[in-house]
Design goal:
- The protein is mainly α and about 80 residues long.
- The chain has a domain of about 50 residues.
- The protein contains 2 helices and no strands.
- Helix 1 packs antiparallel against helix 2.
- The radius of gyration is 27 Å and the shape is elongated.
C-alpha cells in the first residue's frame, strides 16, 4: 500500500466516522470508519518504516567519468 492509498483510507474513514449521520441496519458506520482510519495509518507507517529506507537507497551514485565536450564552429562564408 502506498502513501496515496493510505491517505485515501484515512480520508474515507474520517468521512464515515465524523461526517456521515446515517443509520444502516446491522452495520455501525462509525466503527467501519475507525477501522479504515487505522488501516490507513498502519499502511502509512509501514510504508515509511519498511519501504521508505529502500526507496532512498535506490538513488544512483554520482558518475565517476569526466566527459569533455568540444564544440567546433565553422567560419561563416563571406
Amino acid at each position: 500500500m502506498g502513501i496515496g492509498a493510505s491517505i485515501f483510507l484515512i480520508a474515507v474513514g474520517a468521512i464515515l466516522t465524523f461526517a456521515l449521520e446515517r443509520d444502516v441496519s446491522g452495520l455501525d458506520v462509525d466503527v467501519i470508519g475507525i477501522i479504515l482510519m487505522l488501516a490507513g495509518a498502519l499502511g502509512l507507517f509501514m510504508f515509511m518504516v519498511v519501504w521508505g529506507p529502500q526507496a532512498r537507497r535506490r538513488t544512483l551514485p554520482p558518475p565517476t567519468d569526466v566527459v569533455e565536450e568540444r564544440r567546433v564552429y565553422e567560419d561563416p562564408p563571406l
